Amino acid sequence: MSSTLPSSLGETLRQLFGDRFSTAQVIREQHGRGESHHTPAIPDAVVFAQSTEEVAQIVRICAAQSVPVIAFGAGTSLEGHLTAVRGGVSIDLSRMSKISRVSAEDLDCTVEAGVTREQLNTHLRDMGLFFPIDPGANASIGGMAATRASGTNAVRYGTMRENVLSLTVVLPNGQIIRTGGRARKSSAGYDLTRLFVGSEGTLGIITEVTLRLYGIPETISAALCSFETVEQAVAAAIAVVQLGIPVARMELMDRGLIQAVNAYSSLSLKIEDTLAFEFHGSPASVREQIEMVAAIVEDNGGRDFEWANAPEDRNRLWKARHNAFYAVVSQRPNAKGWSSDVCVPVSELSGCIVMTRELLKTCSVPAAILGHVGDGNYHVVFAVDPDNRAELEEIAAINKKMVRYAISVGGTSTGEHGVGSGKIAYMREEHGDAVDLMAVIKNAIDPQNIMNPEKILPQ
Amino acid sequence: MSSTLPSSLGETLRQLFGDRFSTAQVIREQHGRGESHHTPAIPDAVVFAQSTEEVAQIVRICAAQSVPVIAFGAGTSLEGHLTAVRGGVSIDLSRMSKISRVSAEDLDCTVEAGVTREQLNTHLRDMGLFFPIDPGANASIGGMAATRASGTNAVRYGTMRENVLSLTVVLPNGQIIRTGGRARKSSAGYDLTRLFVGSEGTLGIITEVTLRLYGIPETISAALCSFETVEQAVAAAIAVVQLGIPVARMELMDRGLIQAVNAYSSLSLKIEDTLAFEFHGSPASVREQIEMVAAIVEDNGGRDFEWANAPEDRNRLWKARHNAFYAVVSQRPNAKGWSSDVCVPVSELSGCIVMTRELLKTCSVPAAILGHVGDGNYHVVFAVDPDNRAELEEIAAINKKMVRYAISVGGTSTGEHGVGSGKIAYMREEHGDAVDLMAVIKNAIDPQNIMNPEKILPQ
Does the domain made of A326-428 have the CATH classification 3.30.70.2740? Predict the structure, then answer.
């Protein structure tokens, strides 16, 4: 596919950005997809931006000719956020990787959008600080803000919604604004920060993010335990939430996932439905949490409560969990991952997972259930052949049943992966007429519809 | 002042709502003001609504004739949110006081907008649950959502921003939407919930709120300690925050406030700069928190660490704190309260308070400093004669210095009271061009500008 960019626009960008402007096929292909099964749609060109001002300049140039712009961070999207469905320019922010400021006193920092989660935490470690939001993939902070990411630690620390204090955003007209501030709370006007968090590049491009940080806990402890049935595991998780025990992580991995993870990460975990916990706090508080959780696990038929207190054991466990997506996908040569993601009130979680388990019994491709069950959020990862239409339809049908069930019990079509193009079909079912209000906002802020078009909102 | 409502509109409303429609002077006067010094502006009429559908009906009728509508909850606003500066209809939601649903399993509930904080907590008590957000006044939940309220417990439990899951909102065209859902997290589209939280009735009228709830802690303990200087008290508070000790409340009351509170609530607290703490958790966790805080207090020159473990002592303490605003105001006959409210990064708090203290030395009216210092949020309450222009100008000048200082160090012009009309003048200074984006959103959602006009946004 050749570039259909207006030639004068390409020329302008080339003159301004030199070899940081590219129309090379391989570069464009890299930028037209995330990590999932969604059909790529490659942009006409890619610009590697190095500053907010450069992003603003590119947006102004594109806006003048109504050319779409799509922000690109680490490329770890799972719901088709990065596809250039109407062509246009992909703005790659990965070179905006400066950690501009860290305040240990105020427990906050400001980073450029291309900084990755792991880069930030490596930088913070020696200061005794960490940023807890952890979606598994080594995503960029800008991308995590744009998709309202969360992950394994959200049950204790919240999501990007709770942990972004302030943003620098380039609007569709090229104007640069700063939303929010460094105060922990504010009642000064509309919450623009929260409007851009989760807007997936459709209202503006996030170029800088101010985040809340946390002190590395004095004590960290992890544990694994297995259950005969997934229902027992979920029942134990729900009891932990309802008693308000402040676990830092509480992850469900079904036996299918354990198998995949053992093979991929050379582990020898027992092939059973498993809950993995992490506890943060003072020694006394961690001890207390563990005692309470152990009792709940036992009450719910759990067994083989096992510790992983040594940092290397703990790291191996969580690395395996982080690689779960890749582990499932690698079970099948040349497969792509399709990761469905719903979130429900915890009282509905067991019903949802049992229903999903039932659906998977007849599924023709490798699949596994995993989830941040403390939040009521779980995923099914399928290893699909993206060229096999029958398979894609089969999984789409399972996905639809899961999503509709979740919505019908007061839940959401996506707990953390975002809408992208993958969940657009469910937006009206989930939000009703509120979708029209979202469209009013989109149209007011981006009247030309150049910011990541055809994402989030149904046409 | 007589009503200037189009007579056909008044007639329509009277026919529909009977004696729940009023143009009586005394009723209108009650609805044209909050609890503070701001000059009242009375609405042309008041309607007491009993359902979301009724609110929608009133809004549609008003919208058809471009008549302003102003939502009214408990009337506890401090920044002039309720003034009908362009006349119009005040929609009183206080009769929408149904607690529609409580789920102990999911730790959430849905209430009508007129339910008050105290009503909700009374209802929840027997179920072992509570709603922690506590701005002092017995505000309505709808009003608390609309102003993004917080208060004494926010240091531990967050603000309305973090604790509202979902809203029912009547839009300026009379359409009813539901934002969000009951899942703890979602990445499904624009965060409309957070857009309406803090929008002060300028984008729509909140008629129903779904809230997060918490289990009543197993152990609750409170303590008071005094300091020779306010700087010492603030330094101790900052150390507590920086060490991540999960105190539930940490309130500064300066000696001026203690004097006022002693007189108003018949207490005999020592007349010194004071920190008041509350600790929530398991017995072991509370014990641990107390030990750590006591050590920090001692390190910072605090003394007379005193317990209030008996519920009646604790309740007396917090009731006195809740009445602080009224206590200061009552020091002077016929005075009104002017409560300024800023919030800064905690590292800047000491500088701000010292500066404020300096300003107060020459202040001609009774004034006291109090604050939710764990969040970097503090107030000065002045007892003013609202008819004395010189006094109002004097306090406006002090207020301006405080606000500008807060903004200059990365803080906000209002931590929790909202913008109303009182902080409009600082919106551009705080947000820069982001204010224009707020206006774009306001104009797109409320093109006739009928929803609580002349609030939040500078003209």
Answer: yes
Query: Helix (H, G, I), strand (E, B), or coil: what is residue A315?
Result: helix
Chain A, window 65-124: residues with a beta carbon less than 8 angstroms from a chain B beta carbon: 103-108
Give the phi and the psi of residue B274 in degrees, each rounded to 5. Answer: -130, 140
Are A343 and A376 contacting, i.e. CB atoms less than 8 angstroms apart?
yes
Q: Are residues A318 and A152 in contact, defined by beta-carbon separation less than 8 angstroms?
A: yes
Two tokens, residue B308: 């209030």
Residues of B in contact with A160 (CB under 8 A): none
Tell me the per-residue pLDDT of B60-102, one tens digit each, with 9 for 90 and over: 999 999 999 999 999 999 999 999 999 999 999 999 999 999 9
What does the pLDDT look like over A268-323, one tens digit per residue?
A: 889 999 999 999 999 999 999 999 999 999 999 998 788 777 888 888 888 888 88
Total residue count of chain A as it appears in this document: 459
A199-235 pLDDT, tens digit per residue, is 999 999 999 999 999 999 999 999 999 999 999 999 9
User: Using one digit for the tens of pLDDT, what is the confidence trace for B217-227?
Assistant: 999 999 999 99
Q: Which of A171, A343, A430 lies nearest to residue B437, judging by beta carbons?
A: A171
Mean pLDDT, chain A, integer: 95
Assign 3-class secondary structure to A225-245: EEECCHHHHHHHHHHHHHCCC
Other beta carbons within 10 angstroms of residue B207's beta carbon come to: 25
Contact present, B117 and B144 (Cβ < 8 Å): yes
Mean pLDDT of chain B: 95
Residues 220-279 of A with CB under 8 A from B: 238, 241-244
Contact residues on chain B for A195, CB-CB shorter than 8 A: 190-191, 194-195, 441
User: Across the interface, which of B161, B179, B444 has its CB nearest the CB of A434?
Assistant: B179
SS3 B312: helix
Fold of B219-322: Alpha-Beta Plaits (3.30.70)
CATH 3.30.43.10 intervals, chain B: 7-92
Give span(s): CATH 3.30.465.10, chain B: 99-215
**pLDDT for the residue numbered A2:** 52
Q: What is d(CA B456, CA B459) in angstroms, rounded to the nearest whole number?
A: 10
- Say what the pLDDT of residue A122 is: 98
Rg (chain B; Cα; Å): 22
Instruction: Report pTM.
Output: 0.97
Residue B285 carries which side chain, given as an amino acid letter?
Answer: S
The answer to whether B443 faces chain A, any CB pair under 8 Å, is yes
Query: Is A146 strand, coil or helix?
Result: helix
Integer Cα distance of A209 and A205 in angstroms? 11
Region for B18 from its dihedrals, namely left if φ exceeds 0, alpha if ψ lies in -120 to 50, beta otherwise: left
CB pairs under 8 A between A and B: 277
Interface subset of B 184-203, CB within 8 angstroms of A? 184-192, 194-195, 197-199, 203
- Please tell me the class of the A8-92 domain: alpha beta
Residues of B in contact with A406 (CB under 8 A): 183
Q: Which H or E run includes B29? A: helix B25-31
CATH number listed for the domain at residues B7-92: 3.30.43.10
A295 and B CB contact within 8 Å: no
CATH topology of domain A99-215: 3.30.465
